[in-house]
Amino acid sequence: VRFKVALRFVFKFFLPHHKLSLSQFPSSFFSTMVNGSETTMPCMFFNHGGGPMPVMGKQPEVAAFLKSYGEKFQDAPPKAIVLVSAHWEEDEVVKVAGSVEHDLFFDYYGFPAETYDYEYPAPGEPSVAAEVVRLLKEANIKVEMDNERGWDHGVFVPMLCMFPEAKIPVVPISVLKNQDASQHLAMGMALRSLRDQGVLILGSGASFHNFGFFRAATAEEQEAGAVHSEKWAAWLTETMTSPKLTNEERLAALKNWEQAPSALACQPPNQAEHLMPMFVIAGAALGEAGVSIGGKTEADETNPDMASKWAGVNRLIMNQFEFLK
To answer: Model's pTM, two decimal places?
Structure first.
């Protein structure tokens, strides 16, 4: 009661006296005033699997993780999703999907015909896209709106698993071909405030992405891949989750990720586009410690051809991280 009386006093006497209007206050101000705090959406980096395989039922553990993560938001869905896709690379300028309607971009090859008929009719959200552009520009990051490009499988495959109802607006954004960790961390830091506006920020990629080890045919090659994977995963987990690191130390370590144990064996030089979304997500957490969640990929052992071609996959670790702060 006392709070309501005080609020009426502010609205009746303080605002007019200081020539202020309610429109000059962000909506979040009133949410915070009434509720005492405002919900901050998490940000999360995840493994999107191989092509359409999670949707096909060929990577059930990947699909199950994505489904379970989406279910966390059943009672309080995000206002929109900003999704950084490893499958959208641009030369020097970050691109942001700004249209309401979109096509799907089936950027995979050699899969059954039905995998090219998928639909994911969730809308885009131009107002959120415009805010992404504004925030990146304020951080002196080159950025442009793109209303033409379809949503690639780094977007629609995980969204089909995570939010199959396709009701939550999605705003895909690109990574940069330079694969500079510092620039991608800066992108995430610039977008941090979106999380306080009810926007879920997701990074779609893979912490391990070396096709030589994915398709390792001999026991020796598979063992080498597994050893590299363990060393790299241990470093990533420590760096991304350790409370012993300060935010500054964490960000500095990530900027120099190529010096980490087995880093370049797991993410070969100039082929690390699948790691770039992770840096955006770490930046959107401002270097706070995250937690490891899920983190396994697998070949389709029911398909002899697939199991043979991708025999090395089952021994490789796919790190995934969520940040709540």
So the answer is: 0.85
